Amino acid sequence: MSEILKEIFALKGACSCGMVHESAIRDIRIGSGLVHQVGQILKENAFPKKLLLVADRNTLRAAEGILESLSDFEVECHVYDFIRVAEMHHVEELEEKVKGREIAILSVGTGSVNDPCRLAAARQNKLLCIFGTAPSMDGFASYGAPIVANGFKFSYDAKSPEVIIGDTKILAEAPVNLKAAGFGDMIAKYVGLVDWEISHLLTGECFCPKVAKLTREAVDELMGMADRVTVRDEYTAGKIFEALLKTGVGMSFMKNSRPASGSEHVISHLMECKELQEGIIPNLHGDDIGVCTLEMLRYYGQLAEKAFIHAKKEEIDWEAIYSYYGPMREDVVKVNEPENIMDAVDPRALEENWGEIRRIIQSVPDYETCRAAMEKAGCKLTVEDIGKQRDRFNGYVRYSPFMRKRLTLLRMNESILEFQLEGAK
């Protein structure tokens, strides 16, 4: 059994946090040349004879040899020319291909290829294997699937794959920009962990120290490898893939994305939705996430410099917020009405716990430290690097917290009187 599987099984079951941690994962293989062993691995995990292989032209090309390894299976291929954003019609067309059949899904690629497969497999109760072709995002082991439907991006309850395979030779040869994007997505976990623990402190939201530790150790380990991220080195590629898997496992255990995403991800999701409305193809997920992470680390760091705060019940112009969302208005109304997530936060508790909130913020590497690591890893670093105008970006920051029913430090900005986001009013 691999070391990562041992870690997963050690955390499964009833936990002191009050949850029963579950994972559908049966097998994880990370090693050199595994593309030629995919068929054998699927046999060992009792996959049916028929497979629907889903990929895009680039990921299928990267996984050269995978079809030959499946010679004992009946393989149908569903190959996209290009898929940057997973949309509901992708899910529905995959469902039609597997509905009522004894067939499993083999997803060859990363995020936007994997996510429709994850949701379609869950809805049709099919076995799923993910063969990762680049260490570019952390969703390989996740149960959730972020999908755009009617212009609104929402994370749907889906499933973890039963089998995950990472060929380190292929991962090491992945384009440099994809590796850098994966690093940016991992650094975001620092903000996610801060938001999660603060919400637990103020509202009692379920928080698991063991899952948080699994995520934190994975990110810390990757931080120490920043200068090797873009090198074509199989060992490093394998370790990055493993770190990405661990954060996905954490999300699976909590049945939500709390261990791996916070305010930075919601900002990015809003950016993506707005750009899709304008016919703009969004950036790589990890590029936008990395920049949003740095912006939040800087903002949270500035907040932590305050020895005390004055808090109040927020006063929201809901009509202005809903108007900003335009075609997404109805979805955002559903998120915020009739229950507003901030109703659970007592301003007095916010003031009284400010010292502990400062400690939580300062428990993760700061903006300067993360920026230096991301620079070494070849990541995008600034709003300008990801092609955004500062005024528009500040609008995304200002309005993004209302897109999810999730408490973050950014969501509490309206209650904190002594600091406002620069240019975001």
Task: Describe the overall structure.
By secondary structure, the protein is α/β, with parallel strands linked by helices. It contains 19 helices and ten strands. It has two domains: 172 residues, Rossmann fold; 158 residues, Dehydroquinate synthase-like, alpha domain (Up-down Bundle), CATH 1.20.1090. The strands form three sheets. A six-stranded parallel sheet has the order 3-10-7-6-4-5. A two-stranded antiparallel ribbon has the order 1-2. Strand 1 and strand 2 form a beta hairpin. Helix 8 packs parallel to helix 13, helix 12 packs across helix 13 and helix 12 crosses helix 19.
Which helices and strands occur, and which strands form pairs?
Elements: H1 3-11, E1 13-14, E2 20-21, E3 27-31, H2 38-44, E4 50-56, H3 57-62, H4 66-69, E5 74-80, H5 88-98, E6 103-108, H6 111-123, E7 128-132, E8 144-149, E9 152-157, E10 163-167, H7 168-172, H8 176-187, H9 189-203, H10 209-223, H11 234-254, H12 263-277, H13 285-304, H14 318-325, H15 329-336, H16 347-352, H17 354-361, H18 367-376, H19 390-399
Parallel strand pairs: 3-10, 4-5, 4-6, 6-7, 7-10
Antiparallel strand pairs: 1-2, 8-9
Helix pairs in contact: 5-6, 8-13, 10-11, 12-13, 12-19, 13-17, 13-18, 14-15
